[in-house]
Amino acid sequence: MKIEAIEARWLRAPIPEASQHTSDFGRLRTFDGVLVTVRTDDGREGFGEAKAAVGSAGDCASLVTLIERELAPPLLGRDPRRITEAWERMYCGTRGDLALARGRSFPDVARRGPRVAGIGAVDTALWDLAGQSHGVPLVELLGGKCHDELPAYASGGWGDVDSIGAELSSFTKRGFAAVKMRVGAMDKSVEVSAARVLAARAALGPDVELMVDAHGTCSLAEAKRFARLVESAGLRWFEEPTMLDDVRAAAELRATTDIPIAMGESLSTRFEFAEVLHHRAADVLQPDAGLVGGVTETRRIAALVETAQLEFAPHLWGSAVSYLAGLHVAFASPSARILEVSLGANPLLRELPESPPEVRDGKVKAPTAPGLGFRPRADLLEAWTVPV
Ligand SMILES: [Mg+2]
User: Fold this and answer.
1) Of 87, 128, 207, 309, which sits 20 to 30 A from 231 (CA to CA)?
2) pTM of the predicted model as reported, rounded to 2 decimal places
């Protein structure tokens, strides 16, 4: 079996005005992502996803060019089953042979950001192909499932102090026993964020798990004050409290509160996660397969999290491709306890797949279709492709 072609498409799905939401990232008018298709000489197609921006609305043109012109050519004609070797070749660029011969990585100089996102898309497509060619769901190639089903949490929560309770209660009415809301710079002050959280808790009652996500926008002092003000809310976790490149700020916060700290959706490669663990900065680690380096890197991070005896909760806010990539790894990890289900409008998750991912009574069953279990609808693929 050989890799015959690697194609990257920028997908941009419009979101109807009534379903758009606004956060610190701005108003989400479209949902964007890069869909990678790897074709083999025996007629199979594997799918992967790369992101230019979390929550999308980023410009994906440079990512498409990088994947097609830089990452793809050295892999053409190679065996798609040699996935870890392919990852190393893409990561090391022109020094791939040298690195593989020495048994150490000699990464390309521009080794983070779009490059690793692109590597991850190709990598995930190779895993998809591997699962399809064995006729088994990807989770079986990762050691098999540790869970028959996992609870999901509804991820949204942009409402103000007067509407947040009703917004989150509408999620629990759909069967979710856990919900996540946004806080931080989208509010005028820490006090406003705290008031919204306390209003949410009052509306939800004591039994619903409640998480908060600040998208890395609090100063360390603000994060400490917020954690103190919401002490009575019994939060399941405080996600991305402070600026992501200052891992020690999160570590300092974690040392002052018993609210579990979550992070990782914007981090790149297992090396950045190793730093988080080294500094004891988080309790819940959240790699995004579309940014972190694909299934290969996500499963390596799951192993690090298992070793540290912490919680693995992949970031699943993307198209159905990165959602499924993270989900398969989660089902294969004993450290996964809950899955993210975005309740923001997301046509790439809910409309693009021929069979959209299912959530019933707030729970997700272990995947059973071969590979990732993703096939795109051809009509939407054409309609939503942005020419590059
Ligand atoms: Mg988040």
Assistant:
1) 309
2) 0.97
- Residues 6 or more apart from 356 whose CB is under 8 A from it? 320, 349, 350
* Amino acid (one-letter) located at 159: G
- Which three-class secondary structure state does DSSP give residue 220? helix
Instruction: List residues, by chain if needed, whose CB lies under 5 Å from ion ligand 1.
Output: 213, 265
26-27 and 22-23 strand pairing: antiparallel
pLDDT at 200: 98
- Helix (H) / strand (E) element for 228: namely helix 220-229
Closest CA to 11 of 295, 368, 285, 387: 387
CATH architecture, domain 141-365: Alpha-Beta Barrel (3.20)
Q: Which CATH class is domain 3-135+378-386?
A: alpha beta
How is residue 53 written in tokens?
């921006």
Distances (CA, A) of 313 to 130, 135, 327, 328: 24, 27, 9, 12
* Under 8 Å between Cβ of 364 and 149: yes
Q: Where are the domains of the chain?
A: 3-135+378-386, 141-365
Q: What share of the chain is helix, strand, coil (3-state, %, to 5)?
A: 40, 20, 40
Interval 2-23: pLDDT, tens: 999 999 999 999 999 988 888 8
Distance 316 CA to ligand 1 centre (A): 9
Ligand 1 centroid – CA 213 distance (Å): 6
Given a contact cutoff of 8 angstroms between Cβ atoms, the answer to whether 212 and 181 are in contact is yes
Q: Tell me the one-letter amino acid at 190.
A: V
The pair of three-digit structure tokens given for residue 363, joined into one six-digit string: 């729970």
Q: Give distance in angstroms: CA of 314 to centre of ligand 1.
A: 10
Taking phi first (over 0 means left), then psi (-120 to 50 degrees means alpha), and beta for anything else, what does residue 66 get?
Answer: alpha
